[in-house]
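Risk mitigation, structural track. In case the binding assays with LPHNJNCV fail to produce interpretable data, a predicted complex structure has been prepared as a fallback.
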Amino acid sequence: MPRFAANLTLMFTERPFLDRFAAAAAAGFTAVEFLFPYDHPPEAIAERLARYGLTQALFNLPPGDWASGERGLAALPDRFPELQAGVETGLTYAEATGVARLHLMAGMAAADDPEARRAYRRAVAWTAERVGREGLDLVLEPINARNMPGYFLNDFGAAARLITELALPNLKLQFDLYHCQILHGDVTTRLRDLMPMIGHVQTASVPARNEPGTGEMNDAFLFAELDRLGYAGFVGCEYNPAAGTEAGLGWFEPYRAAQIGEVGR
Ligand SMILES: O=C(O)C(=O)[C@H](O)CO
Ligand SMILES: [Mg+2]
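Fallback model:
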């Protein structure tokens, strides 16, 4: 049965960020993820994880100036030194939280721009090597253009090709079921084909990005398929609750009892 990680950027937002850890644990989650921890001291996050027995499943490396629309620096040739500094910041939080994988966002650039492609390849290789020295995986996530118009990495095939070409043992795919359905469809076949390189999975309904089980995909089938494929990682719940986080947790009920804290990292 999948081990679900509550995404604290989108779920439990009825409370301040640092209070969401307690709420996730009370709801039966044993793992959490979020987009970014950088507004809070690493010790404060580490303390919440320890206090509530939660595993940190994932977070994103610094993305540049998010407020001004930046969504990562990896495909931006002139921003490599800033990316490198951001990776060091991310590693400080990784050490405090014990997270085992980090997501590197690509940034806003044309997917067919040769300079952006060269920059992205260099940044991905450098970052994977750097976080690998700390025993961590690096994950890359294709994101659909409806949610993030102009985002560089908008194709599962392109991500898979790069991961295959670089052949770095700790470089993996972040397979967001929601983005895959919007970008390509045929989600089960892609899960089967790409499973050997998948390092993290995320879920949300399509098209509304709400609770699993409320959209066009058979999410329970996909969760069972992850089991059939032997996926032992986390499934991040990266959805916007339709009408309150707790009120929408009916989908989680069949899985709650099996969320064993000590399994997986
Ligand atoms: O948008 C997503 O699906 C993500 O997982 C990222 O963290 C980027 O926002
Ligand atoms: Mg995602």
